[in-house]
Structures are given as structure tokens and as C-alpha cells.
Amino acid sequence: MSGSTFGTLFRVTNFGESHGPAIGCVIDGCPPGMALSEADIQPELDRRRPGTSRHVTQRNEADAVEILSGVYEGQTTGAPICLLIRNTDQRSKDYGNILDTFRPGHADYTYWRKYGIRDPRGGGRSSARLTAPTVAAGAVARKWLKAAYGTEFRGCMTALGEIEIPIEDWSQTGLNPFFAAGSSKVAELEAYMDALRKSGDSVGARIYVEATGVPVGLGEPLYDRLDADIAYAMMGLNAAKGVEIGDGFGVVAQRGSEHGDELTPEGFASNHAGGVLGGISTGQDLRVSVAIKPTSSIRTAKASIDRAGQPTQVETFGRHDPCVGIRATPIAEALLALVLMDHALRHRAQCGDVQLSQPPIPGQRG
Amino acid sequence: MSGSTFGTLFRVTNFGESHGPAIGCVIDGCPPGMALSEADIQPELDRRRPGTSRHVTQRNEADAVEILSGVYEGQTTGAPICLLIRNTDQRSKDYGNILDTFRPGHADYTYWRKYGIRDPRGGGRSSARLTAPTVAAGAVARKWLKAAYGTEFRGCMTALGEIEIPIEDWSQTGLNPFFAAGSSKVAELEAYMDALRKSGDSVGARIYVEATGVPVGLGEPLYDRLDADIAYAMMGLNAAKGVEIGDGFGVVAQRGSEHGDELTPEGFASNHAGGVLGGISTGQDLRVSVAIKPTSSIRTAKASIDRAGQPTQVETFGRHDPCVGIRATPIAEALLALVLMDHALRHRAQCGDVQLSQPPIPGQRG
Amino acid sequence: MSGSTFGTLFRVTNFGESHGPAIGCVIDGCPPGMALSEADIQPELDRRRPGTSRHVTQRNEADAVEILSGVYEGQTTGAPICLLIRNTDQRSKDYGNILDTFRPGHADYTYWRKYGIRDPRGGGRSSARLTAPTVAAGAVARKWLKAAYGTEFRGCMTALGEIEIPIEDWSQTGLNPFFAAGSSKVAELEAYMDALRKSGDSVGARIYVEATGVPVGLGEPLYDRLDADIAYAMMGLNAAKGVEIGDGFGVVAQRGSEHGDELTPEGFASNHAGGVLGGISTGQDLRVSVAIKPTSSIRTAKASIDRAGQPTQVETFGRHDPCVGIRATPIAEALLALVLMDHALRHRAQCGDVQLSQPPIPGQRG
Amino acid sequence: MSGSTFGTLFRVTNFGESHGPAIGCVIDGCPPGMALSEADIQPELDRRRPGTSRHVTQRNEADAVEILSGVYEGQTTGAPICLLIRNTDQRSKDYGNILDTFRPGHADYTYWRKYGIRDPRGGGRSSARLTAPTVAAGAVARKWLKAAYGTEFRGCMTALGEIEIPIEDWSQTGLNPFFAAGSSKVAELEAYMDALRKSGDSVGARIYVEATGVPVGLGEPLYDRLDADIAYAMMGLNAAKGVEIGDGFGVVAQRGSEHGDELTPEGFASNHAGGVLGGISTGQDLRVSVAIKPTSSIRTAKASIDRAGQPTQVETFGRHDPCVGIRATPIAEALLALVLMDHALRHRAQCGDVQLSQPPIPGQRG
């Protein structure tokens, strides 16, 4: 069944393959009357873009977005917004060896078994390149949420391999190639990545994203809870293997006397919950962490089989991210924005206007 | 917007409140021609049922399920199956103090802010009691999946507070009150819980669930990936704060050379991925962990506010689980079954018959 | 795939069989804070109820509705509302002869071919009895729409067989067994039906429904147009074979100079369009007609086959409506209300508050 | 809410405006492994294309379709198929007068009231031009259905204004500008249209479409009946005001003894039902009629108001179809194909392989 649509009311339908003529998405359900142009979207695509440092894939894609519909004289009309990104740098020869063999850790095997056919060029549909339309759609959601509620999103890398990266200074995230929120670890990360790249190996990472200025009351229990949809979004990020909200797996060893966030007339006194209670936003900051596995494309030979089931060896050359986690930060921000956007519209449908976290219950204090 | 339906093709719509006349669900989309009676469902409800040991809430509910529709002469007809569970032990007095104040860590505040009204009796709609219909629906899915593909589900507790519980012997999970897969830690867990209960506090837990005999090819990228939907399901479990698939957060410090599961003519040589690649099942076992926060209902006083925004203190007496994680195991199994069931039907819609993991690529070897 | 849910945001999931223990529905997405009790719903069920005159089936069902969830202290909470109607008068012997043969004009054959199994008792799932939960859900929608916008619904029969029934006086519809909007034809209709019943035959009918006080702007083109969803709803009415909006099939022979409704500062000057332009409500009255085929259960023998494909003859005795169109009026009103309710919430999600047809463009004048 | 997606499993998301840079759609859920190229789609677009005779709009659009995704080496991969059609002949000056006034019978007023903004160029989103992507998607569905089940679609005009057009010879539909299934009325229709065009007026029409080789068992009651979804599709056709299935409004005056189609070992003896019983396909031909209103763009002045609510007069010059019904035939065929395609996949999801109408119950005999 069709699974390429994200959201229920702010619906993003993603299309395209890594080495096809174009990728893109159609956003259906965007509120009318919002100023929108390519200039609102391109900066987010540029943050995710390959080729921006030596630590990411050297594929050279401008990722220039074109708005094909849904905007008239600079304003959204309520009609579907088609965003198109032409592919320009497809070197199919890089991927010739993967037509007949299944790369370990990749989706080659599962796509082939599921569909009986797969587009092997650059990973085809399973390429991380398909996160670009998600990021583009996220930019539209971010603009609307900021104007409507003052909601903002930011993310950073908090671990790369064994290296923990503390959050020291959010203003640094755009100033280093790792989305590190601070400069103290950057030199260590550079050296680590250079060594890794030489060894032909790859490594995992942990990403943290948060939203501030979140309206209270978003989330649709019993099942479509805000935290459930955040988990869906984040685990759908290529290479994600774990998602935490608030204290995450830290809650296992916590006591209730320690965990439950107290309320005061000025707001919540702490935020162990990560901004969600009972599946509904509290108005506090949303706090989310995601574990990203090491890139599966490595130069080290690994055992595999070919389409006939015969044993073979696979080494992957070509242009790859040695840590896919590095470019995951803007994608995770976009996904969080898409979840909130959809839930803002869902809330409005059933309950009317969205409530901001105003006093006397002003949201997060701590 | 309506958020009480789980699934897209095997649709479970949940209704009811903790202290209303009844709870239940309607399953729409169940394949016709499957033998089904209450006896197929009741055992799973009994595993989740309150009052089965001194370590869980002492509320006494038979949780007797009644099939109201969709079955004719013992067989499913393809029509919606309504499952009804009457509530019998509603002591509303236990909850009188929560009408006007917001219990820290609970959904009281968010429900009130979202809807402007809430049913405070026993947590109303946000009570963990509403997992019973989920478990009942899961039992229907389990029966179908087992008959169709041989798929089976099992789960256990792997940590309670600081105590790690190794998986030693799956046959033990039904023989102790903790769903521990082994007996070596049971005495320690008993003592721990007794002390906790006396202290009036609560504690978190970690749950592990797995599916065996999984068909290959389930999952609908780009967004409705199997792992994304598993994360949605598990994070929607009451009190869940984290979800891992395969090696989970362990991947952060892994190398690609270590993580990628090699393929051999006899199947995969390992299962770091947890049974999903590119959002599609590999045919290996699905491996999922969930972090459950400590119960928010504790006897220790905590600061809060009332509906007028004035400061107050909240202590929660009454009948509660000091570790909600204990009863979470059968619920997590049911959720995993519902995800697989829905994806089995989704796959069949687009791609035709589901493929089992037969040789020459026989699924997991390791 | 599951097809028993009506609506996208005000979702009504219908369950039950004609001769099972109960029928009912779950409404998910109802706005919170509306006063609601069984007394709001029962009168609409009573209008649809069998056994109210000699011209309809003599099955005796109280159709007493019970609210099982979603209401606390007389107000909707935003949680799903389960409405349950117990079946009380199931004489299965009436239907014994239809187990093995397919009644011409009935769903026996198609259900059997689709599902490989069918519940033959009283038509099982395909019985018109299953419109009762639709009517019950419609009553909830009607209450909300009236309070929110002043929207009201009314319907009448405009033809029974060859007899055209003019709309003369809406206050008469509840005072005769035919939902005729006037008394001038009632005696003729009584005689017609008495003769028909004696002959063992059945007849078709045409139903007209309208909504007044309709907000402007409801409908979600490109595909989910208001008129498209009205057609879906009405053609889904048991035995419906045609739907018209506004001038309906009369437009075929019209000129554009005649058809297009002119606008004036006081509103539209006519309503050929039936209240919809471009798939969106104009604020004028919605005008809908439905053709209902003659009941397929007749005492005249007709040729058919049995499950082995062998020829046979079928006569249907038992309790049937000789004109199913008679009881269709309240059902059609309910369906129109459900469509408008869903579209009111859909509109609000994307565009914010619904606009009423205030001056300077006050809706229908003519 | 987003309403630009047609279907639930074979999902077609439509985007674009009449005078924007491009129109198109994304098809999600197409089965993999089907040969597909632009050559499969273009002929259907050419049938719908403007400018093919003097009786339709003289806008000159090549309507050349480009497949942007979802096809690899000439085969569908199961990934979303994006179909793009560039707009080439946008003379915005033709429509300058409609920016500030609301054309009677058009969607100008309702779009403006709904969204607070509208793209007036060529009708923007409400233009009949947006049926082109629907036709393109329909071509994909038609190819799959024909290969899988032998299902085929054909349509014709059966009335233009007062002129009834009998179905005499299906092979004629492509040989005259009216999709008339016979040549006997063509000269009369030519003369009629020439006179109409000179008068500056427009006229309505009735369209008939049918499907042959329909699998038995398609349709998802209780609500998502096949006939309900056909009505939704057809009433969503621009300018449609009525839909009939089988005998349609003719059933009002029928007796049950006459209407119910008898079954014989060789199949059904007649087809009053139009191929649907109980909302499920019988395996007989599907028979559908649609009433199309006269084009609202006429040269005759009509009263209207401007955006300030002041009275004005509107005459519409420019390039218009004097009978939009003429080009509706291929669109209606496409819509019927899309409905059947979606239901074929829905059926397969719940019930497994679709059954063809084989003996001993071979579908329609009469």
C-alpha cells in the first residue's frame, strides 16, 4: 500500500529516486494566505545538502527547489504545493556493482524481496537523498508554525561514535560541519572523522532536536499521540534505530518521586517528560533524541549473496557519508516540524483554536 | 481530529473510559473465514489483567470480552468485529481528589487544556485500562498471523529500576509476576517491589518484545516503514519514553564494519538491524525494546496547581501499579502483532501474496 | 479493506448484523463540550424505526440507544462516543430459505462471492437495519451543526412509483407514514401501498433532502468536493441507484444563460446549483434527490441459483418493507448531516473558523 | 483539509493550476512490475485534449506527459509515479475581468469565500484543466486492470441538450467530435453546436460510461461501497449534477418483480442493477450515467457582484467549451477506472486474490 505520504491533514507526498530525473513532494492541506517563495525553503535544503564539507558525501547537488503550484502572487492559496528538485549529478557508474548483489546493512535485499524489482542507481528510492523533499516540506511547516505560535526548531549532534558532544552554545551549530552545539569538541571530531575516512569505515551518531514555543494541547490520543507520531517520524529517518522523548531510556532507573514534573503557578518546574503527557503537548519544550546507525556503505569487504543466492563479497566505493548522522540534524528538525504542523491542524479541527501556553499556566519555567 | 484508530487496513477503533460502563474496540478489515471465539482472546486479556499479584494494581476486573459482531457460526465474516468489555469495579471515590488538581506526570493537565473538559474517574480516557481493547485486538491479529505465516510474539521485562534481568529461559515468563525470562532474578525483584510499595514510590522498567516467523517484505517506505510504525505503536504505549529496534542506541558507538549484518546462502549471519532494513522486514526476528517511565501515581506529596492556577500538593492514594512496566509486556506484544498484521495486508494490497522467508534465503541463521 | 467508517474527521465506524446481539457505531472526533444524552438521539431513531405503520416492515425493534463512552456528566469529552443498540426481535426462521440460494436483487450473491462466507440471518451485514447507527450518529452531527451554525435538515418523499408527491407543506412530513410534505396525496399513497402489499410486489421511490443554514466554504476540492461526498453518502444508502444535486439531470437540456445562478448584493437570485459551486458550499440551501429501487424481497417467485450454481426459484416471505424508500428519508437527512459535519471540521482544520453566510453576501435570497 | 487525493490504496494526488507552470499528479501504491511509459498515457490525454475540434475550447495545449519517478527500465517499481504536464498556452489576459467579480455558475465566489484568496488565471485550481492528471492516472489504472482481469472501459455522450443520442455503434465514438456511439446524429449535433456557439450560450449533456470484464466482489460495505465510490468520483467531475447506476432514476417507477435481476447457471439474465448489488460488483458490466451542466462561461451578460459586494454584470469572453460535457467522456472513463483499481487493491488486502467471473457463474449473459 501507498506509504509515501506523511501526515493526515498537512499531507506531504514524496516522490522520486536518487538518480532519476527529479525528486520532490506535494504538500496538500497547507493553510491559505501565507507568504511563500523558494527563498523560504532553499536555506533548509542547503543545510542538508551534500558536498558541504569533506566529512560528507562529495556528490554535488544544488538541490534547487522550484514551487510548481499552490502559490499565487507570493501567497499560498490552499491548493496543493508541488515542490520539485531536479537531480543533476547522477554518476550511475558508482553503483554498478550493486545491481546484482545485496549490500549488507542496506535496503537492497528487502526492496528486491518486497517488490521483485528495484532501482539500484544510487540506492534508488531508499537513498537518503529522498530526505530532501521532507526537509523542503518541513520548511513550509516551520514558517507557518513560527508565524502562528512562535514555535521554533533546533537540533544538534550529541554523540559521534564514542565521543559525547555537550550542548554548550546553540549559536555554534551552523559554524562547524557536525551541527555541534559548541566548539570544544570540533577539533576532536575533525580528527576522528579524518581517521575514519582513511580506514574506509563508518560510525554511528546521536542527534538531539527540540521545539520551543509549542502550543499546549497537541496530540490525538488514544493512538495518535504526539509522542507516538514523533517516534514514527524519527524512526522513519534513514538509519535511525532508536528514539527517546524527554529522559528516554533514563526513565528505566528513575523513581516516580523523581520523574514527575511538578507544576507551579509559573509553569512546570522541570521537564523530564520532554513536553508530552498522556500523548498531548504540555506547552513545554519538546525534547527528542535519535540514534543513527553507521553508514552501511563502507570500503571494508563484507560477505553477502547475489540475486541467485550465491555467496559473494561486497565493498562499496563511490561517494558516501562516513557518518550519515552528520546530515541528519536538519532532517530531524524538519520531521519534528511536520509532526507539530499536522497536529496543530488536527487539534484545530476537533477543538477549535489552538491554545498557546499563556499565564497563568505559562509552560516551561525550568 | 479522531486519533483512536490504530492501523490503516486492519483498523482497530478503541472506545471507553476507565470508569464508564464499558470499554472495547471495533476491528474493521479482518480477513474472512478465520475461526474466532472469545476463547481466542480471553487468555491475552488475562495476562494483562489487574489484580494478578501483589505487585500490580488491586483493582478487580474480570475483563471478560464479548464478541458483538463480525463472527457467524464461529468464523469471521469480513464485517467489523466489535469487542466489548464491561467495567465492573469502578470505585470512583478513589479518584475524587484529582478532579480539581493536576497530578504531576499524569495527563490531567494536558487533557484539560486540550479538551476543556475531562473525565477524571480513574484517569478517564488516559487510563492504562484502555490498553485492554488493544490487547484483545492483538489477539485476533496474532491468531491470523500464526495461521498464515507461523508468526509468533513473545516479550519479557529486561530491567526493573537498576536491576538488569537477563533473558535466560523464555518458558519462565508466565511463571513469575514480572514477565522475567528466567528465574534467577525473581527473588530480588520481589524484594525490590515490596520495598518500593512500602515507600509509596514507583519505578521505571524496560521491556523487550520480539516476533519470530516474520514474512519478508513488510513495510511501506518512504514514510510508513515497518520500523516507523513499530516506533509509533510502542511510543504510544502508556508511559513509554523510548523505543529501540535491533541494537538501538548501541549503534551510536558502532562501526559500519561491525554493524552491517552479512548475508549468506543460509540467511543472515547476525541481526544487529533487528529485522528491518530500509523500513522493510528482512524475514529475521523483529527485536524491539521499550523504556517505561515510573508510575506517576505515588503516595509522596508533589507540588502542583489546581484548575484556577493556584499552588497545591498532590498525593495519590488508591489502587495503582507501582511499576506500570510490569503489565506492559503483553500490551507490547499485542502492539507488535497489530503493526505486522496491518503491514501484511498493506503488502498484499500492492504486491500480492506475502512471501515467507524460504530458502535459498531462509531468514535468520544467527 | 475496512470500509465501515464514514467520514475523515468526524469518523463514524459502524458495526453489527441484523440478527446478531447488537448493532452500533463509534464516533471519533466529536468536538468536546457539547451536551449530549440518549434523548438527543432516540427521536431520530424512532423516525426510522420499523413497525410504525402497516406500510413498513412489521419487525418490532425498540431501537433503544445506549451511550457507552465519550460523555461525562452530560457533555462530550472529545473521546470516542460508542452508541449501542441491542437487537431484540430476531426471528431467524424468517430467513432460513436464503442460506443456500441467492435472492435476486439482494446482496446475497455478492457477499458470498466476496467473502466466501455470509451471515444470512436477516440479510446479515447488508440489511437496511444497519442504517440505524448511521441515523444515530447523524443525530449527534445535527445537534452540533444546529448549535454552531443554525444548520438544519429536512427531507420528504417526492415520488412513490408513478405518483409524484409535490412539496406543499413541510410541517406534514411527520404526520403521515410516507414523509410526504403535504396531505393532498396521502390517501392515494395509502391505497397504492395497500394494493401493492396485497400483490406481494414492491416499488421504488424518490427522496428529497435539504439543508438550510449551511456555512459557506465547505468542501475540499480537487476530489473531496462537497457534492462528491454527498453523492458518496447518498449512493451508499441501501437501494439507492441515483443522486441529483440542484437541478440534477434537468441540467442536460438547460442553457448556460438559464442555469447559472446570478449573484446580487442580497445574495443569490436562484439556486439551480443546489448550494454547491466548484465543489464548495455557497451558503445557499443544499438540495439533493435520491432514487431508491424497489425492495428486492417480494413474494413473487423469481429465477435464481443456489450455491452449487443450480437453478432454483426464490420467493421471499417474512417481514419486509414493500417500499424501502419510505423509511429512507430520515436516513438521507442523517447522511447529509454527517457529510456537512465532516466538512465543517475539515474546513476548520485548514482555513480556521467557518464563515457563516452573513451580509453583504447573505446566502440564498430566491 | 487536504482533499486532492483520490483513492485509498491506489492514491492519486493532483496538483497544479490552469495557468501555473505545470499540472500533474503523484500515484502512490501502483503494483510493481508493470511495463509503463509515456506512450501508455499520452493517447488518453489526447482524447481529452482541448483544441481538437471547433466545438471545444481553442486553447492549444500539447498536454505532453513526463514520468518523473517510479519507473525503472520501463517497469513500475512500486514507488510513487509522478506524472508532470507542463502548461504552455496560458493567455492570462483572457481572464483579467474575473479577478474582481464572481462569474455566475463558477467557483469564483466559493473559492474566495473558502480560502480568502484565489488564483483567477484561467479558473486557477477549479479549471477543468485539472482533469488532465486524473485522465493520466486513469490510463495507468486501465493498463493494470486490463492486464490483470481483462477489464475495459468505454464511454459516450447520450444526450446533448434536448438531443438524445442512441448507442448504435461503439466503434464510432472516436470518429466524431462528440464521443457519440453512432453516426446518425452527428450532423444534427454539429449544426446544434454551431448555432449555440454563435448565440454565445452553452448547453448541458449526459454521459454514459461502462466497464466490462469486471471482477466480482469489489466494494467495501458498509460505507465504501463500489457504487458509493463511483458516485463520489462522477459527481466530482467538473460540472456534474447527477449520477445514475444501472437503471438510475428509472427505478422510482419500477416494481420489484421487474427490477431484480434473475440469476441463471449461465449468469445474470439482465442488468437493471448496473453491476452492483449491496455495494459489491456482481461481475456484470458496470453502467453509469452522469449529468453535466451547461458551461458557466458564456457571452451573455449576467448579474453578479464584485468582491466589495457591489452589483455588476459579467460576460465571459475568451476560449471556452460551449458544452463541457463533450470532453467529459474520457474523464469519466478514467474516473471509473480509478475507482475499480482502488477497489481491486482493497479487496486483495482483506480477501486475497480477486475472483474473476468464471463459470459456473459467468457474469452477465443478457
UniProtKB/TrEMBL annotation, chains A, B, C, D:
InterPro entries: Chorismate_synth, Chorismate_synth_AroC_sf, Chorismate_synthase_CS. Its cofactor is FMNH2. NADP(+) binds at residues 48, 54. GO terms for cellular component: cytosol. FMN binds at residues 125-127, 238-239, 278, 293-297, 319. One of its GO terms (biological process) is chorismate biosynthetic process. It comes from the Bacteria. Pathway: Metabolic intermediate biosynthesis; chorismate biosynthesis; chorismate from D-erythrose 4-phosphate and phosphoenolpyruvate: step 7/7. It catalyses: 5-O-(1-carboxyvinyl)-3-phosphoshikimate = chorismate + phosphate. Its EC number is 4.2.3.5. Pfam families: Chorismate_synt. Reduced FMN (FMNH(2)). Keywords: Amino-acid biosynthesis, Aromatic amino acid biosynthesis, FAD, Flavoprotein, FMN, Lyase, NADP. GO terms for molecular function: chorismate synthase activity; FMN binding. It is an enzyme of class 4 (lyase). Belongs to the chorismate synthase family. This reaction introduces a second double bond into the aromatic ring system. Homotetramer. This is Chorismate synthase.
